[in-house]
Design goal:
The protein has about 130 residues and is of the alpha+beta class. Helix content is about 15%, strand content about 35%. Strands 1, 2, 3, 4, 5, 6 and 7 form a 7-stranded mixed beta sheet that branches. The longest helix is centred in the first third of the chain and has 13 residues. The termini are far apart.
């Protein structure tokens, strides 16, 4: 799995996943033959319509227990900066996209893990 915290000024892009019913960082599973960075770039574009104006920077790996079965999952965390905000189109998986400052309320549930991961990548001077 690879996820990206993409920043524009002091806001990070979040997507609303219809199936999980929550706001989260764009990301997903690696496709065959794909590395984590390639997956992060692809998932960012597919889920949010956004691209990083600079090469994505690898932050580290995150490990967590997922779901009621407490299945161990691992994900590569990347961060980048958008030079401009691009249009978004909803699809069958992603219902909405927002630029978020980590403090305003979002309508609905927000993934606590993804908020934590986003905070780890806060740009200098955004604290």
């Amino acid at each position: 799995m690879a996820v990206t915290a993409l920043w524009h000024r002091a806001e990070v892009v979040m997507v609303y996943d219809r199936f999980r019913g929550q706001w989260e960082l764009p990301g997903g599973l690696l496709e065959p033959g794909e590395g984590p960075r390639q997956a992060a770039v692809r998932e960012l574009a597919e889920e949010s319509g956004q691209v990083s104006g600079t090469p994505l920077r690898f932050v580290g790996y995150a490990g967590f227990l997922l779901g009621s079965a407490q299945r161990a999952e691992y994900g590569a965390l990347f961060t980048g900066h958008a030079l401009r905000r691009r249009d978004f189109e909803a699809d069958r998986e992603i219902e909405a996209m927002r630029w978020w400052d980590l403090s305003a309320s979002l309508p609905g549930r927000v993934s606590g893990i993804d908020v934590y991961l986003a905070r780890l990548t806060l740009p200098a001077g955004s604290h």
